[in-house]
Design a protein that fits this description.
The chain contains five helices and two strands; from the N terminus they run αααβααβ. With 116 residues, it is mostly helical.
Length: 116
């Protein structure tokens, strides 16, 4: 009986080690896979031309300003949203105020506004 009892006590330990070793193998495979993917992405990005978002930003800042005539019912927020739908309207409103030297957001119908 003691031989069977010893065998029963020894079996759970190797099973735990087997699971631990399997877990470590899986983690190692994942680590190597993600490291390889990261290296591949870095190499691909290094070979890309200059970022188009940077050139768009510099073109917008360096380009000539547009003149917009305020219409009835317009607000700076509406103008920013209509003229620059892909940009954050709050930033555009601040830029419009800065370009036009405005201290408030009050505008009048017929008023010309410089747009960025």
């Amino acid at each position: 009986m003691s031989a069977i009892a010893n065998k029963e006590r020894k079996d759970p330990q190797p099973a735990d080690w087997v699971h631990l070793i399997r877990l470590l193998k899986i983690l190692m495979i994942l680590f190597i896979s993600f490291s390889s993917f990261h290296w591949f992405v870095i190499k691909r990005v290094e070979n890309l031309p200059a970022s188009s978002t940077l050139s768009q930003t510099s073109v917008q800042k360096g380009s000539s300003t547009k003149i917009y005539t305020v219409k009835d019912g317009d607000t700076l927020w509406k103008i920013a949203y209509k003229q620059y739908p892909k940009q954050n309207p709050l930033e555009v409103v601040k830029e419009i105020q800065k370009i036009n030297g405005m201290k408030s957001d009050t505008i009048k119908t017929g008023q010309p506004l410089k747009l960025p």
